[in-house]
Structure formats: structure tokens, C-alpha cells
Write a structure and sequence with these properties.
The chain is mainly beta. The protein is built from 3 helices and 57 strands. The chain starts with 18 loop residues before the first strand and ends with a strand.
């Protein structure tokens, strides 16, 4: 017997029975009292254990072999192969000696990964469901399935929660939306409850009957939108609303006609359209065949070694995928051959490499063949211990991995290395701990993310903006700092960031409520004979007869007033802003009494002469044209005492004569300079047979005389139009509706008005003692008081139609003097010269307060019954033209959205549009409408800031045209009103 003692012994074994080595294998005889193979014995000699039944032959030291207590071994040269061992997958060996190779369940190769999915077949990759990844850990077991999304119960959220290819199945209401089916909303012409009937249970339609002036006129809604599909599909894809009318029935009630022209959702069809109106093209929903021969689409994959190719549409079918690289069986080449996102899965050896696992190398202290045992089957080579490492050799000394120590176990018959203790082998990477757990030289590799790294998240589609995620403990945090999808609202934006705009929220017209659903187009505004339309000083454009343009010219009023200093045969110019007299110049005649201001600020002065026998002496009776500095431009030789002066729309000056009982038309530009003084060219004259005390020209080109009767003359043709009875007269002026006002001082008459058209109705104010009259731009009428109970000026305020005198206000001259004339300046203030040798002029505010008195020529008589500032020319004869249209929506709850028009607006001109609303058309004239919305000078004009227009049935649109440049006019065409309800 021979005792074997290990030199540096953790444990010693003393053998008392004979042992021998047979063929290199360890053999222990029964009952020897020594150690059995693997250092084990069933209990001692004669104890009846398996180790005592015969010699145990264990060639690889795994405790298994013939006669061994653990039983026989199927491969006594490999300690990793024996009964009960873990079957290793993909190593081509029968590790557990059951006669099968790589059967399941089996162990995995550490650090390898694979796809995993526990959902029902056919659901992976459908809807939100997708597979995850598993990694093999150091225990040769597959870890948890990370990142997998499995089917859940379906619920109503627009997602395929159960991953069966359908969205919200069994969850939608009758309208195809989540939640309870909405109730029917009466009056919106939609099938809100999706039962196939529009406005069911709502009764008949409302004819919207309106009674005006004692006569009842019904305006049933016509051409109104309707839509019988689910409301959220209206205006989406192929679906559009139709139109229907509220129609009088035989029984006297009203009912909606059928909805004509609508397109409601239909079944999916491979026609490249969104037939079911859910915002997605049918061929994207149905895997439809191709539609257009020659069309191309991508095919295949760009994952791994694969490359996408191209398919061509031919005969309605997609052809084979060409030009790409298809997937191949996985090879052990460090490439993703089968294009599944994994590399070399299922084709590596136990050590994770290609081909057969390496053979064990004795004496290097490593587990070369990756069996889990270091230097198995090797002797100790005379060493008592050695450094050992059971992990992959490349990981030794990397990260936390390091070698341990193993001791030599010797017996009388053999020696082998005991287990390796104290070594640290690779583990699965622990994400976020900052340690290279798997000892591959990288920290936190193979985690979901590297610690501290950031990445973009979310989407930039629609209104969304990408945010940022940060890797924390190996996992990405939630997305912060971005703009996430929200519920779709009707605003012309892609709120839910799905690439579609306003899907499911448009009305039947395909617009956003309350955006306009209807358009009322006035494409021929030049046609003024249309119900509800009023044209004032606008005419069809000669270039585009469908458009309107100014019938006359207007200009910016200059800050001047021209006053006759009659007894000195002079005329003075004052600055209306400062009251300072600019100059006082000869009138080139005698007893000047009328002035009229042209567009360029020059002045025409009428000399009334008053000297009997000098009616035809032009140094006494004449009309002179002075420039801005008072210099003579020309003299018009007009006989018969000039007592009326006015200027027409074409720039001609008109003189009315008292003794001559005629009117004369004088050119404003043609001058005969061969004579001295230069002569203004006479363009025509007309004998009237009545003495003329004053003249005024309206916005239609008619001249009216202050006479009895008054004469109406066509200025363009120089022809008498009509002779109108007029018992009283004196000063004369025109208002914005082309009605003629007279002072009425002669014959103790009153201040009164004659309509501009037959039957020439007369409106009397009852105010006497009035000489000159003028019309303020605010619509009030002013007169100068001469010899009445109160001397000064009088102000008349009328209602909107001008048919009722609302108030009469008399403002006394502070000095108790008569006032000879009245005119409005650029600032809207009133001027009235004082008479009887005062030589001063009053300036009044529109409220009737005399704010100042200015010297003109103190001690001299001032006398001017005409348009001294030119405001009548610019605001009446050449005033802004207006085009007004009343529109009946037929709905009391109308929502007025905006107006559009096409305009040509040269420099120095303007087009301004404003609108107001009312419950009835009559309310506009009665002053019961809303405030004006506007004015707007550019198209389109949004009414969004004028909510007060809404919920009124009628809209009145006013288009104003104006110019500040002679000979230049704006033009307007194609006016539109857009609205909804």
C-alpha cells in the first residue's frame, strides 16, 4: 500500500485498500475503504453501496463510469457528458446520455440572443404586437423576453389591441366611433345618430317666414348642405355633402327634399381612393393589387445582408422582387444572413465561435472547450496548484473577470485538478451599473442603451416635434421636451400627427365648423338692378362691365376756405387749420358772392355785378379762375350777373346768372392766352327762363338751380331734364342720397328738401330765416341764420332714412350778428362769415360750439352762399361710391365667416368693405342692425373679430370706392360672402 500526500493540501486522502491504475483509468477495488471515482464512496467497506460492488472505472473524472456509484458514462473522455448533465443546444452532442442530440429543453450558449414571443400564432407583427429578445445567461438558461408586446383585450382607442388585423372591432357605435351613439341634432342636416335618416324625429323644416311692411314673405332655406353618412366621415376621402331644399308641401307644411349630390362611405374597393372615408386609401387597407401598369414599389428588406429590390405593376399584379438581395440560411460568418436582426444565431459552437469547439489544452488553466471545467482529464504535471479561469480565455483579466486557483488532487493511482475556485467569470451585463459585467471590454453593452446617452424620440409629423430620451440604468426614459400627438381638431393642422389633416372632424362641406359652408357669389356687381342692392355713385366699369367703379372722381380736401370780400371786389384764402389769411386778391369783376373750389385747390369766383346796365360788361359780371396763390388763370365772360358757381365731376365750372336766367359750362383746363386777360373757354350754355340764385351738382351729374321752379340740368349733355316746383329758395346743397336742400329765406320760406327723382317729394323742416345750406359728412344739415329769431347757424339731425327730423339745434352768433354762408372744412368743422361790415368768420365744432373767430378783412362785408371749401364737390359730386348688398341666409343662426372680392386699386385709390347684420332686412333702414364690422381694405376680410354679426339672419355688405387722384379710379368685381350655420 502506498500513501499519496498532496504538498499543499486543502484536503488529504489516505487509502487503506489496494488500488491500481488500469489503462490510465482510475480503478478502486470493492471494500478498499478508499475513495471512489470523484472522491466519493457509498459508506465504507462492506457497506453494500454501489462503490463496493466492483471496480469503478472513471476516465474523465466526472463520477460516472463502469462500476461507479453514479452509474455508467456514455462518453468517459468528456466530463461535461454524463447522465443528468444539461443538454447543450446546437453543439451536436448527446450531453445527457439519453440517446438524443440537442433535444429540448436544452441549455443555451451564454451571451447569445434570440427572438422570443409568447402570443398566439399569427399575431407577431400585427398591430402593436411584436416579438422581443432573450439573452442566454451564465447558467446556460434563456433570460426574460425583453421588449415583447403581446395582444391585450380590444378596447376603443383606434388601435388593434388584440393584434388580429382589425381595429376597434366590436367596440364602435353605429357611427363607427367610440362611445355611445350620439343623439340626433335637429336642424344641422346631418344623420347624427347614423341610422340612415337625416334629422329624423325633428319634424318639418322651418320656412323662416318673415313679414315686412304688412306683407308676409317666406324665405324657405334652399340649396342647403346635407349629409347622410356618419358625420365624422363628411369631407374625408371620397365623401362629400350634398344639397337639399326646404320645400312647401301640398298640406301647407314644409319638408326637406332628398339630399342630392352627396357621396357617403362605401365598401372598400381597390381603386386607389378612400371609399370608406376613414382617412386611409383603400389599397393601403386591403393589400389591393396594383392599379397602374408600370408603377413601381419597393420590396424586400434592408436588414442584415438583405437589400430591398423593386416590383413592377403589370397586368394589375405586382411582379417578382428584382434587383435586391434576398435572405439566406444563417451561416457562421459574423453576418446576419437570414436578415432577422441577429448574427450567427443557432450556428455557433459551445464557445460561441464557428466550427467545432476547441479541444481542451492541458496545463493552461483555461476551459478551452467551454465545458465548464478547467483542464478536465489532465494531470497536474507535478504542480500542487495553478491559476485557473473557467470563462472564455479572451475575457480573462478584462473588466472584473480574473483567474482563481485550483489544487491538484492525488491518489495512489492517479492525479487530477480539482475545481477552480475564486475565479470571476463573465456574467450577463447589468445595465446602468458602470461595470463591464460580461468582460468584453465594453461597459453596459448589449443593454437597451448605453448609460447617459440621449436620443431623439417621438415624431416630427404634423404639429408634433421630437423630444429626447436619456438612457438610465440601461433603459430609455420617457420622451421629454417634444410635442406629442393630441386629439384631432378642425383647424387645418395634423394634430394627431398621422399625416392627415382634420380627418373625421370636417363638416359635410369638407370645412371646419363654423368655417364657411356656403358661398354667396355676386360675380356681376356692375348690375345694380338686383333685389337688395343699392348702387350710389358707382357704375359698370367700361373695361369690365361686370365690375363696378366710381361714377365720379373724389379727392382729398385741402385745408383752405375762400371767402368773398364783396364790397372790395376781392376774394380771400384762409387756412382752415390755423385760421390765418393766406392772401386777399382781386376777383376780376364786381361784387363777388360765390366761390367753388376745384380738386386741385384752385378757386372759381362768381361776380354778381349788381350794377344795372352792366349785365354784359365782363369787367363787372364774370367768373374768374384763380390759382392757389390768388393769381388769375383765366376769366370766363359770362353775362347776366353770376350768382351761382359749382364744379361738376369732369372738372367743368358752371355759372348760373340772375339777369341772364341761364347756366354756363366753362372748361377748367382750356384757356385762350391770346387775349388779355386770358379767357376761360366756354363749353356750352342753356337758357332756363328763371333767375338763378345758386347752383349745386349731385353725384349723378345733375345740376340743380336755386330758383322757383328749380331746374334740373344734365351737365354732360347741357340739357334741361326737368322743371321742379319750388316755392322758396336761396342757398342750395346736395345730400348723399342726391336730394336737394334749399335755405328758403326768400318769401319767408323754410329750410326744406326736394327729392332728386320724381315725384320730387318735398320735406319741410319748419326752420325759417335760413340763407346758405350745406350737408355735413356725418349726415347732418346746416344752415346760416339771417334775420330769424336767433342769428347764427342751425343744425338739423334726421333719422337714417332721412324721413324724420330728429332734432333742430340753433347756435347763436356770440355777437348777435347774421351769418352769410356756411361750409364744412377738412376737419369737419363749420365756417360762417359774419355780415354787416364785420369782416370776420366764425368756426364752429360739429357740436355747435363756436371755438374761434378769425379776421378776414375787418370792417368789410363778407358774402358767400356756396361751397367755399370744396367739400360738396369731394363728398357729394365726386364723393365715395358705395355698392350695398343685403343678403338673406334664411337661417336665424347664421355664422358669418368672411367676405372676398377682386379689386384693382391703383395708387391714390382705395376699396373698403364693411358688413353689418340684422334679424330682418327692414332693420337695416330702421337703424336696428348691428354695428359695422370693418372697414377692410384687403381681401379676404375675416369676420372672426366681429362675433356680434353671428346668429343674425341677414347680412348687409357695403363696398366703398374712393380716390385721391384725378382721373384714377378703383374697380371691384366678384364679391363673395362665405358663411355657415
Amino acid at each position: 500500500m502506498r500513501a499519496l500526500v498532496s504538498a499543499s493540501i486543502l484536503s488529504a486522502a489516505v487509502f487503506s485498500a489496494a488500488a491500481c491504475t488500469c489503462g490510465g483509468a482510475l480503478v478502486v477495488k470493492a471494500g478498499d475503504g478508499g475513495l471512489d471515482a470523484g472522491g466519493l464512496d457509498a459508506g465504507g467497506p462492506g457497506d453494500g453501496g454501489p462503490g463496493d460492488g466492483g471496480p469503478c472505472v472513471d476516465g474523465d473524472g466526472d463520477g460516472y463510469g463502469p462500476g461507479c456509484s453514479l452509474g455508467p458514462d456514455c462518453d468517459d473522455a468528456d466530463p461535461a457528458i454524463h447522465p443528468g448533465a444539461l443538454e447543450m443546444c446546437a453543439d451536436g452532442k448527446d450531453n445527457n446520455c439519453d440517446g438524443q442530440i440537442d433535444e429540448s429543453p436544452c441549455g443555451c450558449t451564454p451571451s447569445l440572443s434570440r427572438e422570443c414571443y409568447g402570443g398566439p400564432g399569427g399575431t407577431d407583427g400585427v398591430g402593436p404586437c411584436h416579438h422581443g429578445q432573450q439573452r442566454c445567461d451564465s447558467t446556460f438558461a434563456w433570460g426574460p423576453c425583453v421588449g415583447v408586446v403581446l395582444p391585450t383585450a380590444e378596447f376603443c382607442d383606434g388601435q388593434d389591441n388584440n393584434c388580429n388585423g382589425a381595429v376597434d372591432e366590436g367596440q364602435l357605435n353605429a357611427c363607427g366611433a367610440c362611445g355611445a351613439t350620439p343623439g340626433e341634432a335637429c336642424g344641422d342636416s346631418l344623420d347624427n345618430d347614423c341610422n340612415g335618416t337625416i334629422d329624423d324625429g325633428c319634424g318639418t323644416c322651418d320656412p323662416q317666414c318673415q313679414c315686412d311692411g304688412g306683407a308676409c314673405a317666406c324665405h324657405p332655406p334652399t340649396h342647403q348642405p346635407c349629409y347622410g353618412g356618419s358625420p365624422q366621415t363628411g369631407g374625408v376621402g371620397a365623401c362629400v355633402g350634398g344639397r337639399h331644399d326646404c320645400v312647401l308641401q301640398a298640406n301647407g307644411s314644409y319638408a326637406w327634399s332628398a339630399c342630392v349630390g352627396e357621396v357617403v362611405p362605401t365598401a372598400l374597393s381597390c381603386n386607389g381612393k378612400d371609399n370608406d372615408c376613414n382617412g386611409t386609401l383603400d389599397d393601403a387597407e386591403m393589400s389591393c393589387p396594383c392599379l397602374v401598369d408600370g408603377a413601381l414599389r419597393g420590396c424586400g428588406s434592408n436588414v442584415g445582408e438583405c437589400r430591398a429590390g423593386t416590383q413592377v405593376c403589370a397586368g394589375g399584379q405586382w411582379g417578382a422582387c428584382t434587383g435586391g438581395v434576398a435572405l439566406q440560411p444563417e451561416l457562421c460568418d459574423s453576418k446576419d444572413n437570414d436578415c432577422d436582426g441577429l448574427t450567427d444565431e443557432g450556428v455557433t459552437n459551445l464557445c460561441g465561435g464557428c466550427g467545432a469547439a476547441p479541444a481542451e489544452v492541458c496545463g493552461d488553466g483555461l476551459d478551452n472547450n467551454c465545458s465548464g471545467t478547467v483542464d478536465e482529464g489532465c494531470g497536474c504535471g507535478g504542480l500542487n496548484n495553478q491559476a485557473c479561469y473557467g470563462g472564455p480565455s479572451a475575457t480573462r483579466g478584462v473588466g472584473p473577470c480574473h483567474a482563481g486557483l485550483q489544487y491538484c488532487v492525488r491518489t495512489e493511482v492517479e492525479e487530477h485538478w480539482g475545481p477552480c475556485t475564486g475565479d470571476v467569470k463573465p456574467l450577463l451585463e447589468v445595465c446602468g451599473d458602470g461595470v463591464d459585467n460580461d468582460c468584453d471590454g465594453q461597459v453596459d453593452d448589449n443593454c437597451n442603451c448605453p448609460e447617459g446617452q440621449t436620443r431623439a424620440c417621438g415624431t416630427d409629423v404634423g404639429l408634433c416635434q421630437k423630444g429626447t430620451q436619456t438612457c438610465t440604468q440601461g433603459a430609455w426614459t420617457t420622451c421629454v421636451g417634444g410635442v406629442v400627438p393630441t386629439a384631432e381638431v378642425c383647424d387645418g393642422q395634423d394634430n394627431n400627427c398621422n399625416g392627415l389633416v382634420d380627418e373625421g372632424v370636417l363638416n359635410a362641406c369638407g370645412t371646419c365648423p363654423p368655417a364657411p359652408c356656403y358661398t354667396q357669389d355676386y360675380n356681376t356687381p356692375g348690375t345694380c338692378a338686383v333685389p337688395g342692392r343699392t348702387c350710389t355713385s358707382v357704375v359698370p366699369d367700361s373695361v369690365n362691365p361686370s365690375a363696378i367703379t366710381l361714377g365720379d372722381l373724389t379727392n382729398a380736401l385741402l385745408p383752405y376756405i375762400y371767402i368773398s370780400v364783396t364790397n372790395l371786389n376781392l376774394v380771400a384764402q384762409l387756412n382752415t387749420e390755423t385760421g390765418v389769411k393766406q392772401w386777399e386778391m382781386p376777383s376780376y369783376g364786381m361784387n363777388p358772392s360765390r366761390t367753388a373750389v376745384a380738386l386741385d385747390g384752385t378757386v372759381w369766383v362768381g361776380n354778381r355785378c349788381l350794377v344795372s346796365g352792366l349785365e354784359n360788361d365782363f369787367t363787372c359780371s364774370s367768373m374768374a379762375h384763380l390759382d392757389l396763390n390768388g393769381n388769375l388763370i383765366c376769366r370766363a365772360d359770362v353775362p347776366g350777373w353770376v350768382r351761382g358757381v359749382a364744379i361738376d365731376a369732369d372738372g367743368y365750372a358752371w355759372a348760373g346768372t340772375w339777369n341772364g336766367m341761364s347756366v354756363w359750362k366753362v372748361s377748367g383746363t382750356q384757356v385762350d392766352t391770346t387775349q388779355s386777360p386770358p379767357r376761360c373757354q366756354i363749353a356750352g350754355s342753356l337758357s332756363l327762363g328763371v333767375p338763378v340764385y345758386g347752383v349745386a351738382i349731385d353725384g349723378r351729374g345733375f345740376l340743380w338751380t336755386a330758383s322757383s321752379p328749380t331746374q334740373k340740368v344734365n351737365t354732360a349733355l347741357v340739357q334741361l331734364v326737368d322743371s321742379v316746383p319750388n316755392p322758396y329758395y336761396y342757398g342750395v346743397a346736395i345730400d348723399s342720397k342726391n336730394r336737394v336742400w334749399f335755405g328758403g329765406w326768400n318769401g319767408s320760406g323754410d329750410m326744406h328738401r326736394i327729392d332728386g327723382d320724381p315725384p320730387y317729394a318735398n320735406f319741410s323742416s319748419g326752420v325759417t330765416g335760413i340763407t346758405a345750406v350745406t350737408v355735413h359728412p356725418d349726415g347732418t344739415v346746416w344752415g346760416s341764420s339771417y334775420g330769424g329769431s336767433t342769428l347764427g347757424v342751425v343744425k338739423l339731425t334726421l333719422d337714417a332714412p332721412g324721413t324724420t327730423l330728429l332734432s333742430t339745434e340753433v347756435f347763436a352768433d356770440p355777437e348777435g350778428l347774421s351769418n352769410h354762408g356756411v361750409a364744412v372744412d377738412k376737419a369737419g368743422k363749420l365756417w360762417s362769415p359774419q355780415v354787416w361790415a364785420q369782416g370776420r368768420v366764425n368756426r364752429w365744432t360739429p357740436a355747435g360750439v363756436r371755438e374761434a373767430r378769425f379776421d378776414v378783412d375787418v370792417g368789410q362785408e363778407l358774402y358767400t352762399y356756396s361751397d367755399m371749401t370744396g367739400i360738396q364737390l369731394r363728398t357729394i359730386t365726386l364723393r365715395e361710391g358705395t355698392w350695398v348688398q343685403d343678403y338673406d341666409s334664411s337661417y336665424v343662426q347664421a355664422i358669418w365667416d368672411h367676405a372676398e372680392w377682386t379689386a384693382i386699386v391703383p395708387a391714390g385709390t382705395e376699396v373698403a368693405v364693411q358688413a353689418r347684420a340684422a334679424d330682418t332686412e327692414a332693420a337695416f333702414a330702421a337703424g336696428a342692425a348691428t354695428a359695422w364690422c370693418g372697414p377692410f381694405t384687403t381681401s379676404p376680410a375675416s369676420f372672426a373679430g366681429c362675433a356680434f354679426l353671428n346668429h343674425h339672419r341677414w347680412l348687409q355688405l357695403e363696398v366703398k370706392l374712393s380716390t385721391t387722384t384725378d382721373g384714377v379710379k378703383p374697380s371691384v368685381s366678384d364679391v363673395k360672402v362665405l358663411w355657415s350655420y
